[in-house]
Amino acid sequence: MWKTLRPYAMVAPAVLIFALFFIYPIFYMIYLSFFDWNFVSPTKDFVGVDNFTVLSGDSEFQKVMWNSLFYMLFTVTLTISLSLLLALWLNKKARIYGFIQGAVFSPHIISLVSVAMLWMWLMDTDHGLLNWALGLVGISPVQWLSSPDTALWSLVLVAVWKGVGFNALVFIAGLQSIPKDMYEAAALDESGPVRTFVKITLPMLSPTVFFLTIINMIGSFQVFESIAIMTQGGPINSTNTLVFYIYQYGFRFFKIGYASAAGVILLVLIAILTIVYFKLMERRVHYR
């Protein structure tokens, strides 16, 4: 009897913790989305789908959705592209490349709060290092975080800088797992570097690209710290994204039901994008 129950007993603590801190909050958020509650009152007023109706017609929320999709698209695209190029360059055995790998990975282990504060100084309009460097080549100062035209791009830059090192190391691991005899066969066939990359390297890296795209996409929708520290969603709501919007309405304005409804939409949006990506890539990912 114990031999049958022992595997379940061993995984029970992990399952309990997962259910308590992940599954239960999701269902409770869905439950709260149908109520009007101020987080303090012991009573909750049932409003049905009114929170979702108000959200669908709210121009501020529509702007937040656009900002979130824009941030996700460019963060994921730039991070994956640059990290792949960096991995192709660093996938060598010389000791110097090992040192560079450690250097480019270091931003990943730095707290995002520290990264945000560092980039706030670098992007300061009057005293920032970036504008000082631009001034040396005769370029006018850029309003990195204070202009609606550049603020969201600036946050994308910070996200790419922090994430490219981790993604590059994962790509390097994927490159080193590709059998060398495939490249030897390509060399005997006098295949050029571009054709070799397209026909061998990229297909063999497709599981790695698939994995990194999914985790980067989900992570980009969860961005909070850099926005909370660097822009507070401004200027003119140009950098407000879904998680920060949920935080604002939940813990600043105490509209818990409204914030929960936005959280449900975020959950559904991530699920839809993930499913669509799985369907689009299921025949393009090669595991052998």
From TrEMBL:
InterPro entries from the UniProt entry: ABC_transporter_permease (IPR051393), MetI-like (IPR000515), MetI-like_sf (IPR035906)
Keywords, ordered alphabetically: Cell membrane, Membrane, Transmembrane, Transmembrane helix, Transport
Listed GO CC annotations: plasma membrane
Entry-linked Gene3D superfamilies: MetI-like
Domain of life: Bacteria
PROSITE patterns: ABC_TM1
Predominant localisation class: membrane
Every ABC transmembrane type-1 domain range: 65-277
Family to which the UniProt record says this protein belongs: Belongs to the binding-protein-dependent transport system permease family.
Keyword field contains S-adenosyl-L-methionine: no
Pfam family, one: BPD_transp_1
Protein name according to UniProt: Carbohydrate ABC transporter membrane protein 1 (CUT1 family)
Membrane topology: Multi-pass membrane protein
Listed GO biological process terms: transmembrane transport
Residues passing through the membrane, by range: 7-31, 69-90, 102-122, 151-175, 196-218, 256-278
Subcellular location: Cell membrane
